[in-house]
Task: structure prediction
Amino acid sequence: MFVYEKKLQYPVKIQTPNPALAKFIISQYGGPDGELGASMRYLSQRYSMPYPELKGLLTDIGTEELGHLEMVAAVVHQLTREMTPEEIKKAGLDTYFVDHTAGVYPSAASGFPWTAASMQVKGDVIADLNEDLAAEQKARVTYDNILRLSDDPDVNNVMRYLREREIVHYQRFGEALRKTLDRLDEKNYYFMNPAFDR
Result:
């Protein structure tokens, strides 16, 4: 069961609307390496994890990613508030606006809508943890790219916080993989899935 706290993990207070900036930050909402995919990946993978501490880790990080999804949505919303038709056109948000007005819709910066095909759940502890390590690094690189393109300190503070959390998640998944590999030996390392074969 989840408990919702009515506050963001890190405050989002964007002073200056900037729809052009929102156009690429939306990728961390619903892009291929964004927070929606991360939360769904981890919350789905937890069911086939053979060790209770891994189930707990995936639940914790998957839940935190839902909080990050909310933060990215708040950034996008605050960047697109009170847009004029001229600002919408100038930012290149006219096609987005036609379909979603100023709603926060899960899509990549390219405009491609979020799809579960951008995430993976294999049901194998080693495969899933390696997927998670890669996912955290891809999310970190996306935050790096946003920081390269953004000159808004209010936005950048939030992006830096989220980037730091990707690094922490990567470290925790690395620890989980090492602990998992320590439990396996030559009789079951890659020859079986500990979730199924006892």
User: Anything to note?
Assistant: The chain has one domain: 22-183. The first helix runs from residue 19 to 25. Helices lie at 19-25, 27-30, 35-45, 52-79, 85-91, 94-100, 125-149, 153-183.
